[in-house]
Amino acid sequence: MTVAADGGPVVAGIAFREIADADVEPVVALWRDCGLTRPWNDPYRDVADARTGETSTILVARDGGAVVATVMAGLDGHRGWLYYVAVAPGRQGAGLGRAAVVAGEAWLAAQGARKVQLMVRTSNTEVVAFYERLGYADQETTVLGRWFDRS
Length: 151
Description:
The structure is a single chain. By secondary structure, the protein is of the alpha+beta class. The protein is about 30% helix and about 25% strand. Strand 2 and strand 3 (about 15-20) form a beta hairpin.
């Protein structure tokens, strides 16, 4: 993998860079177009939270000024996590998803992550198959969660 002049990873000729203020609206629009947002998760808050810490980031790929792919990456001190892997619907199937995953993995590895994980809804069989082709496997765990405050 090469590195762009701004320090972001270049994967398969596609440059990923850290999200900038001007990227927020098109990134959230892309996430919505890809069906990644949920009513209980404010995507703007997710962007803001990822940008505030040193252990998380959002990487963005642009083509002709348009945001065409994203990946949010975060490190919990041991494992790296990928979220919001998104590719513009008209650009899917051309390698941008793989490039986004590789860019997120590279960022996490540079932060010291020893393992990378992600969550996919079990009903999203096409996306599960995509990740399996990239070498990801069911970790035979159950993810449990509880909201602290839903306000």
